[in-house]
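Please describe the entry underneath.
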Amino acid sequence: MNPTTADAATTVEQRWGLFNRWGPYGLLCFGTLMSIGTSGVVGMNADEWYVAGGAVAAALVLQLWWGRAARTRPDPSVAGTVYYTVRWAFAFVLTWLNPFFAFYAVVGYFGAERLLPPRLVKPGLFATAIIMAGSQSGGLPPGNSAGWGVFGALLAVNIVLLSVFAHLAEQEDERARVQAATIKELERTNTALQESMDENVALHAQLLLQAREAGVADERRRLAAEIHDTIAQGLTGIIAQLQVVAGTTDAELAREHLGRAADLARHSLGEARRSVHNLSPAPLEYDRLPEALKKTVAEWAERTGARADFTVTGTAEDLHDEIEATLLRIVQEALSNTARHADATRVGVTLSFMGDEVTLDVRDDGRGFDPLATVERTGTGGFGLDGMRARAERIAGALTVESEPGGGTAVSARVPLVRHEH
């Protein structure tokens, strides 16, 4: 139930509570004043006023008692049945003495379901209708057969009205029950949806953790392979050259092998620096992803001479470090492939923030290729399309490539939007 509906229901319940507590006092007071004012017309004598006064006092005492007893008996009970019955008896006696006391008797129409058990509700309402019909017909008892006829007709009218209003009340109660059930179902659905969203957030966090662990393992394997293929081989070559120098007395031959050793050392140093540089994206050291991508695209354009545009759509947010590093690496690799193979004159890079995911599109107008054809891995340390796709999949994303010979290339990566952990 929303706050507005709940507040409205609480307000209505509070107002009915006030009426049930103070209404009988007010109606009894008003009926007494009307009876005093009409006593001459009705013809009440002193004895009848003594009886009426006693009944009014007893009704007040009864109401005071019920005001305290009702606090512990909110539902139908024996005490509620006794209260309703005795109150009806006082109302019947008072209305017999003066029809205007029916203003007090009318309280029998209100709260019957709250005071009486279900099997006694209709008899209670019928008994109240007798008092009201007697008052409307001029007072009880009717003085002649015509008076009894009028009394019977008015009683029938009151009963019909009670039936109509009871039917409407039942329909309203049924509507309220259906509405309450619907609201409860909506609350259950909303709770389940919130739990699913929380579970989804936890799943994203778990995927990132797994991606980070997988990334660390991949980087270790890559470094091990590169060290074995480049640095280790370079060091082996240096040792071999120095061994030649150590075993020769020819100065010219020694200088030649020392030069080769120096060249191998410089080459190995360059390979080591390149491997270390690939560990973490330097552009993200001081900038967030949009700024880093903008600078990367601008530097690529300046270096290659091709036109390159960078665009951000949606509301930019700080992303998780693993997400930003992955997207930056994908752009770097895509631009590197474009420079080496595409012969493009124009490149467009778009970063889009869309709800719960981020998309990255790199498009060029180069020569294109057949995506189904086998592409050999480059010898410059790049990972190519398979490497970019693996990077995206490690963070629960996906990468697609659209290209055709002569028609340019479009690389699109979609990854979950996971915000930066502050």
Remarks:
- The beta strands are 307-313, 346-354, 357-364, 398-403, 409-416.
